[in-house]
Amino acid sequence: MRRKKVTLAWISNDSARRASLKKRRLGLMKKMSELTTLCGSKACLIIYSLDESELMAWSSR
C-alpha cells in the first residue's frame, strides 16, 4: 500500500504552518544525519524561515 500524493498548498493557519515546518525540519535533519552516517561523508544543512530571525544550521562532525 502506498501513500497518498501530498498536495503543495499554503497553510493558512499560522500555528499549523509553524508546527508543520518544525516537523519537516526535524525530519530533514534526521535524514541528513542518517545519510552522512551511512555514506561516511560530510554534509551541511542550512534552513531559513521568514518567521524566525535566526538561521537553523546543521553540519556533520
TrEMBL record:
<dbReference type="InterPro" id="IPR033897">
    <property type="entry name" value="SRF-like_MADS-box"/>
</dbReference>
<dbReference type="Pfam" id="PF00319">
    <property type="entry name" value="SRF-TF"/>
</dbReference>
<protein>
    <recommendedName>
        <fullName>MADS-box domain-containing protein</fullName>
    </recommendedName>
</protein>
<keyword id="KW-0804">Transcription</keyword>
<keyword id="KW-0539">Nucleus</keyword>
<dbReference type="InterPro" id="IPR002100">
    <property type="entry name" value="TF_MADSbox"/>
</dbReference>
<feature type="domain" description="MADS-box">
    <location>
        <begin position="1"/>
        <end position="49"/>
    </location>
</feature>
<dbReference type="InterPro" id="IPR036879">
    <property type="entry name" value="TF_MADSbox_sf"/>
</dbReference>
<keyword id="KW-0805">Transcription regulation</keyword>
<keyword id="KW-0238">DNA-binding</keyword>
